[in-house]
Design a protein that fits this description.
The complex is a heterodimer of chains A (about 350) and B (about 290). Chain A is mainly alpha-helical and about 350 residues long. Chain A has 14 helices and no strands. Chain A is globular. The termini of chain B are far apart. The chains are: A mainly alpha (about 350), B alpha/beta (about 290). Chains A and B meet through helix 1, helix 9 and helix 10 of A and strand 6, helix 2, helix 3 and helix 4 of B.
Chain lengths: ~350, ~290
């Protein structure tokens, strides 16, 4: 009897230790993110010194040094915060997508949401003049609306044929091609100036960020988080495989539909203002699973942090690489993402053989 | 409310094929019921329908009310996983409905007792996806028991286990039934294991119930021949009947079972004694011949 009690206490203590380790990993990630945020504040074409940044930070947005206050509070800060928010949105959405599609190569863009956003933005850039609203509202609003339309299309197919990974991916591919071809059509019809604007939008860049975009994105992320948190356990159960999950009383189809609506919202929030930023949503979930495992209570926060770190890291890198004209983060994440993708594929292949 | 599982004219069809043919049965709780029969007899389909995983006609009830998904533990056939979760985490997911954001002491305690009962303590920290097929089967079975189900449905859940673990699992199931008064429904191919495990044994063929009763009543050479098309000797031992297969034999003409509307009832209460008497005293073959004339 004492033996059994001892064993039990041992197992419980073991579990608590593992939990503490995972929380510790999240803490380390948060600390790293904070440091990167400060580094991002420090870097930029104007070459402000650490002391200047610190005093501008303390002086607040209405500080005496107007130039420093404007650079820090109106340019760098919204860009950095936007980077963190977009990275977090894409990290969370990517993890959800990889879990519900049971596919390590899925990302928030697998179901064609980014193509839809791109089409919406192109549409607004071309015909936004017809709407009596400023462009910085019309473009993200149209990108957002088109993402939701793409989501509705996929949802409709899933409703009709059941939300299996195959059906979702097939519907997503159809949506992707639909919006991509419509976007190509717009590009074909556009004048060279408009075409340039469209192409610039498609390169995801944090330069488009301002306090409005930060507020809207943060609000959408905050609104989605309770729903993401609610399904933590259910998504973890889904990792056991569909047959196991459904025999444990989980309604897998409903969970998938709920989740990809959240993915659409988060993706729309992420790309509508800054454009398409690839690979963050693919890599961040892998980093999270490697660091804290598949328990989604820990994987979600870590994926969010990892996404933010990757994006802000890319932003710092872009600013350092060419201080005069900042390289869009979308390009850097895509270039840096490819070796990471190879790493994922190679590691996965290795684990299947062993 | 009486604790029993009631199937009322349950049928499962796929296209034109009838896989389960209008079964009406009731199983009082607090016992282990084994389901045997040749491949394609409809065992898995019937269990899937009872678990609510397959569309079916007719009704499945628990006592007077519907069967609540939370009180069912269902382990489908070929249950396995490639998840990167530890064995302990996997067990906890068995009762995911009641887990809070912080896992409570109660659930952890229950999970570690379950590990102890199944002899899995040494594997507690291993990733479940890296375990062998048999070890995974043990973990996933323990996970189902974490739900404390009133109805535990197991589809070939001991097929990957070695004989020692098969006996361990049967022992655990017996204790679980004795402790909680649950009903265990298990599909099983090994007739001798079924004879040891089950209070009642049901033999299915072509979606129809061919024989039911205790192992000693059902496991006769005639029944084995009629249901499996196999020549077999059945030895009576102190531990119940022991089936020794000798070889296949010519398939019989398509079986004609008892009339559908007849309601078969487990051996705890005998509303249809007449039908049971047939099974007990008359070889099934003879019964079929009599019915076809």
């Amino acid at each position: 009897m004492t033996g059994a009690v001892f064993e039990t206490a041992h197992v419980v203590a073991d579990y608590r230790r593992a939990t503490a380790r995972r929380l510790g990993a999240i803490g380390v990630g948060l600390a790293a993110l904070l440091i990167l945020v400060l580094v991002d504040f420090l870097t930029g074409p104007s070459g402000m010194s650490l002391f200047d940044v610190w005093s501008a930070l303390l002086a607040g947005p209405k500080g005496d040094d107007v130039a420093a206050a404007t650079i820090l509070w109106q340019l760098r800060m919204p860009q950095t915060l936007m980077g963190a928010l977009v990275g977090a949105c894409l990290g969370i959405a990517g993890l959800q997508m990889q879990t519900i599609l049971d596919n390590p190569l899925a990302s928030p863009f697998t179901l064609g949401f980014s193509a839809a956003a791109g089409f919406g933005a192109a549409l607004a850039i071309m015909f936004g003049g017809l709407v009596p609203l400023p462009g910085f509202i019309v473009v993200p609003a149209m990108a957002f609306a088109m993402t939701l339309l793409a989501c509705a299309l996929v949802y409709f197919v899933a409703q009709l044929r059941g939300a299996t990974p195959e059906i979702l991916v097939l519907a997503g591919i159809a949506v992707l091609f639909l919006f991509q071809s419509m976007q190509s059509l717009l590009q074909f019809l556009a004048s060279p100036e408009v075409l340039q604007q469209i192409v610039f939008w498609l390169f995801g860049s944090l330069l488009k960020a301002n306090w409005t975009s930060v507020t809207v994105t943060a609000a959408i992320l905050a609104a989605c988080l309770p729903f993401v948190a609610r399904d933590c356990w259910r998504l973890t159960v889904l990792r056991l495989g569909e047959a196991n999950a459904s025999s444990l009383g989980l309604s897998v189809s409903a969970l998938r539909k709920r989740s990809f609506v959240l993915v659409a919202l988060l993706t729309a929030a992420a790309v509508s203002f800054v454009g398409t930023i690839g690979f963050v949503g693919l890599i961040a979930p892998h980093v999270a699973r490697t660091a804290v495992g598949e328990d989604h209570r820990f994987a979600f926060p870590f994926a969010a942090i990892a996404g933010a770190i990757i994006l802000i890291g890319a932003s710092v890198f872009g600013k350092l690489l060419s201080p005069a004209s900042v390289i869009p983060v979308g390009i850097i994440t895509a270039v840096a993402g490819i070796p990471m993708l190879f790493l994922v594929i190679v590691r996965r292949g290795g684990s299947e053989i062993s | 409310m009486k604790e029993e599982l009631i199937l009322d004219r349950v049928s499962v069809r796929r296209g034109r094929m009838t896989i389960v043919d209008s079964l009406s049965l009731s199983f009082p709780a607090n016992q282990i019921v084994a389901l045997a029969g040749p491949n394609g007899a409809g065992k898995s389909t019937l269990l899937g329908a009872i678990a609510g995983r397959l569309a079916h006609s007719g009704s499945v009830r628990w006592g007077a009310g519907p069967l609540n998904a939370r009180s069912v533990g269902f382990m489908p056939q070929h249950c396995c996983t490639k998840a990167d979760l530890s064995v302990l985490q996997t067990l906890l997911l068995g009762c995911h409905e009641q887990l809070g954001f912080r896992v409570g002491e109660g659930e952890l305690q229950q999970a570690s007792e379950m590990l102890h009962e199944f002899g899995l303590e040494a594997l507690a920290r291993r990733q479940v996806g890296t375990l062998s097929g048999g070890q995974q089967q043990l973990v996933l079975l323990a996970q189902r028991l974490m739900r404390r189900p009133k109805l535990l449905i197991l589809d070939e859940s001991t097929c990957a286990l070695d004989i020692r673990h098969q006996l361990t699992v049967l022992d655990i199931l017996r204790k679980y039934v004795a402790r909680t008064g649950a009903l265990v429904l298990m599909a099983i191919h090994d007739l001798n294991l079924a004879a040891r495990a089950a209070d009642i044994l049901l033999l299915l063929r072509a979606g129809r119930l061919m024989a039911w009763g205790t192992a000693a009543e059902v496991l006769t050479a005639e029944n084995v021949a009629a249901i499996y098309d196999v020549e077999a000797r059945v030895l009576a031992t102190d531990d119940g009947p022991c089936v020794l297969p000798i070889g296949p034999r010519q398939p019989m003409k398509p079986p004609s079972p008892f009339p559908h509307e007849q309601r078969a009832v487990g051996n705890v209460h005998l509303q249809h004694r007449v039908a049971r008497e047939h099974t007990r005293h008359m070889p099934l073959e003879a019964l079929n011949q009599r019915q076809s004339t």
